[in-house]
Amino acid sequence: MVQSLNHLKESASQTAGPYVHIGLTPNFCEIGGVYPEDLGISMVNDKTGGERITIVGQVIDGAGAPMRDCLVEIWQADAAGLYNSPSETRGSADPNFTGWGRSPADQDTGEFRFETIKPGRVPARDGRLMAPHITFWIVARGINLGLNTRMYFADEEKANAEDPILARIEHKTRVPTLLAKREGNVYRFDIHLQGEKETIFFDI
Amino acid sequence: MSGSSISNRGPGTGPFFQRDREWHPKAYTPWYKTSVLRSPQKALISFDNTISEITGPVFGHNILGELDNDLIHNFARSGESAIGPRIIVYGRVVDERGRGVPGALLEFWQANAGGRYRHKKEGYQAALDPNFGGCGRTITDEDGGYYFRTIQPGPYPWPNGPNDWRPAHIHFSVFGDGFAQRLITQMYFEGDPLIPLCPIVRTINNPDAVSSLVAALDMNATTSMDSRAYKFDIVLRGRRQTLFENKREGN
């Protein structure tokens, strides 16, 4: 016999289901008057520092269909590479940038969309700088535990080549699944759940 | 619920306990049909938490409206209230080390007393309640405690098998203080005979993991001539302790 560590088990996940919008974006699904606006709908204001960008994409299922009922959240550093979080110990982030956004897929096109800024670089645990990246969390009907991935920027070739997380990926042919392509000020980032183009998902 | 009580107040800055992916449902659970085409097939890639996972958004009480934690009234016409069995749901959000998680945003959504959601994708015949929207939110107090008031949702049929019914449940979305703690789960009700029949419940393999999602009826927390009460605690990932920093010689 041995002493107990007294650790609890994390509550088990259950799917967000088809009605996730009722809870997380009620105004989007025509439940008005409960909250003034949906949380996470706006990440920036007029005073936010950094380069303005738009991120759009679709989450695509194993049959190639965009998932029009999914919901995506992102979390990212500000333009100086600081997170707007009490757990950020390196300095104070831009008070005009939340760093967090939430977007329900468009019910016709399946497209998610974020109006944000390009993040700065932040260090990994060993001090090496990571390339600019945005953490993604995807939930939907049929997804039993929220999926984590990262979006990197295809036009940051030098930084991406130095990134310690990308360097861990054994099959280099899969790295492009994490790279958003620039078209003007819009970065397109499609997330494939299955198939040849299956996006790399992380266990973080 | 018990847990160690290692003092470590304030927002955590450590990496998280590894997620136990045998305890959580697997991605591919073909008896829940929608998971078949929505489950990644390749192995997840692991890495030690960086500051991108250790940090996360934290929400202030200023986002909350007065009725946000009262689903009986937050969509109802003035002077009216939602129909159904009135309940209080309360509990604590703690981490895997048993410490309360203060300031955690909880968002919840549910069907009405007849089992009907206010959503255009809904195909169930039960009537809408004009006084019930089905969403609410709150933020945990200093000890991780929370409560809200609602009506007990009804069970409902759903298109999976030819005759699958969901047990009565309330969906919960939970933020801790690090984005890697982000969690969505569902609360079930003690004694519901539909729980063991449900394909979504059965995506979870471990019976203890299922039990931890079943809220207990608490007759000592009822409100006289008003509401019954159910207790539902939520556990988020804990942060690892760093008792000695791991620094290489010469650094």
Describe the structure.
- The complex is a heterodimer of chains A (204) and B (251).
- Chain A has 204 residues and is mostly beta strands.
- Chain A has one domain: Sandwich (Protocatechuate 3,4-Dioxygenase, subunit A).
- Chain A contains three helices and ten strands; from the N terminus they run αββββββααββββ.
- In chain A, strands 1, 2, 3, 4, 5, 6, 7, 8 and 9 form a nine-stranded mixed sheet that branches.
- In chain A, strand 5 and strand 6 form a beta hairpin.
- Chain A is globular.
- Chain A starts with 19 loop residues before the first helix and ends with a strand.
- By secondary structure, chain B is mainly β.
- Chain B has a single domain, classed as Sandwich (Protocatechuate 3,4-Dioxygenase, subunit A).
- Chain B is built from two helices and twelve strands; from the N terminus they run βαββββββββαβββ.
- In chain B, strand 8 and strand 9 form a beta hairpin.
- The longest helix of chain B is centred in the last third of the chain and has 5 residues.
- The N terminus of chain B is likely disordered.
- Classes of the chains: A mainly beta (204), B mainly beta (251).
- Strand 10 of chain A pairs parallel with strand 1 of chain B, so a sheet runs across the interface.
Structural class of chain B: mainly beta
CATH topology of chain B: Protocatechuate 3,4-Dioxygenase, subunit A
Give the CA-based shape of chain B: globular
Question: Can you identify the CATH class of chain A?
Answer: Mainly Beta
* Share in β-strands of chain B: 15-25%
Sequence stretches where pLDDT stays below 50 over 5 or more residues of chain A: none
**Overall mean pLDDT score of chain A?**
97
* CATH architecture descriptor name of chain A: Sandwich
Rounded radius of gyration of chain A (Å)? 18 Å
